[in-house]
Amino acid sequence: MVDFAQYLPKKNGVVAHVCPKCGKKYYPAPMVCSECGTRRDPAGVAYEPWPTEDLEGPCTLLTWTRLSALPIGFDARYMVFGIVEFPGGLRASGVIHHDKPQIGMTFYARAAVVRTNRGVAEYGLVFEEAADAVSARTA
Ligand SMILES: [Zn+2]
Questions:
Q1: For the whole prediction, is pTM greater than 0.85?
Q2: Which architecture does CATH list for 57-138?
Q3: Which residues are placed with Cβ below 5 angstroms of ligand 1, an ion?
């Protein structure tokens, strides 16, 4: 009997996938590594599943924008959205919890609910100033 639960996202699904051959990190995960051509099989039938790493920690803001007219599920008038780079070169996009971000700022990335779509919580990356992240965790 097939256990279909194995195909559901693990935890909140916000993880970096690491190519087992060359070590390049991805978020989101591709089906083929752009660096060395290694294939990824999420079911682990034809190929080994790729290892994952938590996408949490310090990162540098590369660029950002303010989005208005958000789709259904976002309970806000606008969203500050940006692309960051983690140490090691992995780039990822997410929601910035800062009203006046500046390119080059250091943020702290963590997984959080970014949208509720028809009652289902959807996770994504949230970037906060390091001081904000510390006070949010200790509050
Ligand atoms: Zn690779």
A1: no
A2: Beta Barrel (2.40)
A3: 19, 21-22, 24, 33, 35-36, 38
